[in-house]
Design a protein that fits this description.
Mean pLDDT: 94
Shape: globular
Strand content: 5-15%
Structural class: alpha+beta
Number of helices: 12
Helix content: 25-40%
Radius of gyration: 20 Å
Order of helices and strands: EHEEEHEEHEEHHHHHHHHH
Strand order of the largest sheet: 2-1-7-8
Oligomer: single chain
Largest sheet: 4 strands, mixed
Distance between the termini: 58 Å
C-alpha cells in the first residue's frame, strides 16, 4: 500500500522530483442564504500559519478586504512536532499553549535537536473551537481520510466541517462572497476585466516560482534540482522583465496574482536562497522586484500579515533532514529593506 502523503516532504516522485498533491477539501462559501455554506458574519474560522505562504495568501486577502471582524483566525506554532507520538512518525502543525502551560516544558525539533522553543510562541494560541492539540486533530474531528494535514483550513464553526483547504479558492471566496460584511467591499482581487491576464500570470508563476522554490528545496536527486532551479531562474528573469514594464504582475492594479506572488518573494532571500538552494537570483539584488515588493508590503493590510520570526523559525526548525540542529541564519534584514520608499507610482502613474 502506498503511504499517505501527510507533509510536503512526502510528495517526492521516484525520480526525486517534488510533486505537490492537490488539496482535499474544495467546497465553496457563497453569498446565497440557500447555499450549503452561506456567507455569514462570525461563522467561519481560518486556521493558519504565519510561516506558510499558502496560508498567508488568505491572511493578506482577509486583511486587505477588511474581514478581520467577520472571519476569525487562529495562528499555529511555527515548529512542527510529532502529532501522534508512539503511534506514527508524522510531524506537523501544532497549536500553541498558554503561558502557564509553557512553564512545564519546551520543544526541540521533532528529531530531538535544536531549540528550546517555547510552546507559548508569540502570536499563537490554543485551538478555541475543537480543542485540538494539532492541525491533524482538526482534520480527525471531521473524519478526514486524506491524511494530508495542511493549512490554511477554512472551518465552519456552525456545522463543524472543513469547508476548504485550497488557498487559491479561499482567497477568491473572501474577495467575492463577503462584500456585505467587508470594510473594503470594492477591493476585488479577481476583477472580470483582468481575469485573462491574472490567469495567464498564475499559469507560469505558480509552477516555476511559488511551487518552484519547493521543487528546488525538496528535490532528492541532482537532476530534479537542476531542472527546478533552471525553470525558477528563467521565471525570475521573466518576472524582472514584466515588472520593469508595468506596475503589477497582471497590469496596473494589485490583484490575486500579486498576493500569490508576494508571499513567495517575501520569503525568498531570508529562507529559500539558503534553505532551498535557490541562490541563482535574489530579490534584494533585483531592483524592479525589490521596488515592487516594497509597494506591496506597504499597501494597507499587508504588513501585519508578514511575520518573519514565524517564517524563519518554521522553515529552519521543522525539517531535521534539511537542518539537523535547527540553526536559524541571521539573515539580510529583508523586512527592513521593504520599509524603504518605493517609486512604483512615479514609474507607472495611475490612469
Amino acid at each position: 500500500m502506498t503511504p499517505a502523503v501527510r507533509t510536503a516532504l512526502d510528495e517526492v516522485s521516484k525520480t526525486g522530483e517534488f510533486k505537490r498533491v492537490e488539496a482535499g477539501y474544495r467546497n465553496w462559501i457563497k453569498n446565497d442564504p440557500s447555499a450549503e455554506f452561506p456567507a455569514e458574519k462570525d461563522r467561519y474560522h481560518l486556521y493558519v500559519s504565519y510561516a506558510c505562504p499558502w496560508a498567508c495568501r488568505t491572511l493578506m486577502t482577509r486583511s486587505m478586504k477588511g474581514l478581520q471582524d467577520v472571519i476569525t483566525v487562529t495562528v499555529v506554532h511555527p515548529v512542527w512536532q510529532k502529532t501522534k507520538p508512539g503511534t506514527d512518525e508524522h510531524a506537523g502543525w501544532m497549536f500553541g499553549t498558554s503561558e502557564t502551560d509553557a512553564k512545564h516544558g519546551a520543544w526541540s525539533n521533532h528529531a530531538g535537536n535544536g531549540g528550546p522553543f517555547s510552546t507559548h510562541f508569540p502570536d499563537t494560541e490554543a485551538d478555541p473551537f475543537t480543542g485540538s492539540k494539532s492541525v491533524r486533530e482538526v482534520y480527525d474531528s471531521v473524519q478526514d481520510t486524506g491524511g494530508k494535514y495542511t493549512v490554511p483550513v477554512l472551518y465552519d464553526k456552525k456545522t463543524k466541517q472543513i469547508v476548504s483547504n485550497e488557498s487559491s479558492e479561499i482567497i477568491r471566496m473572501l474577495s467575492s462572497e463577503f462584500n456585505e460584511f467587508a470594510k473594503n467591499p470594492d477591493f476585488d482581487i479577481y476583477p472580470e476585466d483582468m481575469r485573462e491576464a491574472i490567469d495567464g500570470a498564475n499559469e507560469w508563476i505558480y509552477p516555476a516560482i511559488n511551487n518552484g522554490v519547493y521543487r528546488c528545496g525538496f528535490a532528492t536527486t541532482q537532476a530534479a534540482y537542476d531542472k527546478a532551479i533552471g525553470e525558477l531562474t528563467d521565471a525570475f528573469d521573466r518576472l524582472d522583465s514584466v515588472l520593469q514594464k508595468q506596475r503589477f504582475v497582471a497590469g496596473d492594479k494589485l490583484t490575486e496574482a500579486d498576493i500569490r506572488l508576494f508571499v513567495t518573494l517575501v520569503r525568498f532571500d531570508e529562507v529559500y536562497i539558503v534553505y532551498f538552494k535557490t541562490n541563482t537570483r535574489s530579490v534584494m539584488h533585483t531592483p524592479s522586484i525589490l521596488n515592487y515588493c516594497r509597494e506591496v508590503y506597504q499597501t494597507p493590510g499587508v504588513k501585519e500579515t508578514v511575520n518573519m520570526e514565524h517564517i524563519k523559525t518554521h522553515y529552519f526548525c521543522s525539517h531535521p533532514t534539511l537542518n539537523h540542529y535547527s540553526i536559524i541564519p541571521k539573515g539580510s534584514g529583508f523586512l527592513e529593506a521593504l520599509e524603504e520608499p518605493h517609486n512604483r507610482e512615479e514609474l507607472f502613474p495611475s490612469k
